[in-house]
């Protein structure tokens, strides 16, 4: 099968590099053993096309050091590519137009693919439903909802409308969690969750003197402002690992609260160092205002660590499975109280950690990739 996937994010994207990009890479590097796969991503400074066997990454848009421009240009270029290569319009395109659409000899061509997957984000919908006549899948991660209005006021309204109505155009939909499916109100969606690597289970958990956070440095989305304010209320250390466009703002926030001795930013960690970091933390926090499923929740669980999550529906599973505590989203006092509870109760930490590891065994990337493959095969057949 020949698979064509469109997603703005990429694991090396300096502004995002989020769970959606990790999911795409982890699933497709496994499926590439049996299928031909092309992933089209948004350009960023230094982005260059590359291949890993039958898995190929192609970048479109602007390579300037501007996130907003990069996002906008990706949407335009990706939609343009789909339009020019659409089988519905091929007969009406001149030879020169087709040549421009195909670009270099190695440029992807949607005519050559059996199925097209669009990763949804309200900022760059590609309207693929109106462009191509191939089996089409929309993959959904999380819904921002009212957060779009809170962040952008009136300018956020168009994105809220897109988020509400766009997914309803598709027959084949993948959601990464039951919480996302309910928020988007797409009852026909299939849930295929995120996963983790087997090697996480090889590490031996320990208990160093810090609370851990791993993820994208996006203050509003990831609730890092809540985490900083909570640290002003407890006697412990918070170590933040990750990269993102809000790094400088986050450093400024730490200084403003006078927490330079209690909160440390250590930047991006490779896989091995990330596993070690999670395994050595006492507690892992995920204070997000919105999420899809939260891969780091599963990674922390596989390392035998209890988690503290915001009380959004998408992260409720950590509490229901018995390895996490939740706090009221955005409430620094509540977060601080949950931190104190786990920091002061070693037996509770160990009990939750054991449950966490058992739960995480159900979410291995090999298994997730097989579920995903079956869904695509059935979608093509339909």
CATH fold annotation of the largest domain: Rossmann fold
- Give the helix level as a range of percent: 40-55%
Total helix count? 15
Segments where pLDDT lies below 50 for 5+ residues?
88-99, 101-106
The name of the CATH superfamily of the largest domain reads Glycogen Phosphorylase B
* CATH arch. level architecture of the largest domain: 3-Layer(aba) Sandwich
Instruction: Give, in spatial order, the strands making up the sheet with the most strands.
Output: 3-4-2-1-5-6-7-8
Report the order of strands and helices.
EHEEEHHEEHHEHEEHHEHEHEHEHEHHH
Biggest sheet character: 8 strands, mixed
Estimated structural class:
alpha/beta
Q: Rg to the nearest angstrom?
A: 21 Å
CATH class of the largest domain: Alpha Beta
* Beta-strand content bin: 15-25%
């Amino acid at each position: 099968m020949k698979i064509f996937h469109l997603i703005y994010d990429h694991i090396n994207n300096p502004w995002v590099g989020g769970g959606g990009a990790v999911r795409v890479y982890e699933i497709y590097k496994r499926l590439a053993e049996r299928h031909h796969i092309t992933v089209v991503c948004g350009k960023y400074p230094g982005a260059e096309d590359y291949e890993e066997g039958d898995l190929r990454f192609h970048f479109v848009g602007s390579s300037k050091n501007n996130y907003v421009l990069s996002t906008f240009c990706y949407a335009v270029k990706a939609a343009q590519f789909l339009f020019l290569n659409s089988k519905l319009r091929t007969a009406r395109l001149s030879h020169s137009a087709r040549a421009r659409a195909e670009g270099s000899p190695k440029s992807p061509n949607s005519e050559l693919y059996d199925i097209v997957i669009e990763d949804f984000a309200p900022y760059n919908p590609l309207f693929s439903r109106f462009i191509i006549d191939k089996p089409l899948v929309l993959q959904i991660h999380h819904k921002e909802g009212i957060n779009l209005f809170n962040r952008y006021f009136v300018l956020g309204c168009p994105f809220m409308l897109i988020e509400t109505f766009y997914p309803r155009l598709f027959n084949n939909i993948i959601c990464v969690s039951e919480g996302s499916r309910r928020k988007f109100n797409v009852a026909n969606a299939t849930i295929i969750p995120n996963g983790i690597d087997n090697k996480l289970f090889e590490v031996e958990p320990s208990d160093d003197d810090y609370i851990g956070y791993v993820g994208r440095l996006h203050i509003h989305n990831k609730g890092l402002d809540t985490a900083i304010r909570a640290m002003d209320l407890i006697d412990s250390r918070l170590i933040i690992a990750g990269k993102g466009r809000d790094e400088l703002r986050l450093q400024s926030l730490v200084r403003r609260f006078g927490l330079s001795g209690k909160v440390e930013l250590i930047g991006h960690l490779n896989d091995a160092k990330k596993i070690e970091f999670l395994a050595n933390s006492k507690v892992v926090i995920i204070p997000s205002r919105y999420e899809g499923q939260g891969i780091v929740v599963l990674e922390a669980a596989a390392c035998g660590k209890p988690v503290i999550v915001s009380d959004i529906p998408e992260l409720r599973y950590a509490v229901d499975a018995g390895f996490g505590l939740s706090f009221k989203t955005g409430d620094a006092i509540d977060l601080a109280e949950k931190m104190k509870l786990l920091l002061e109760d070693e037996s509770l930490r160990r009990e939750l950690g054991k449950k966490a590891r058992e739960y995480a065994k159900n979410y291995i990337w090999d298994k997730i990739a097989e579920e995903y493959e079956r869904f695509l095969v059935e979608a093509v057949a339909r």
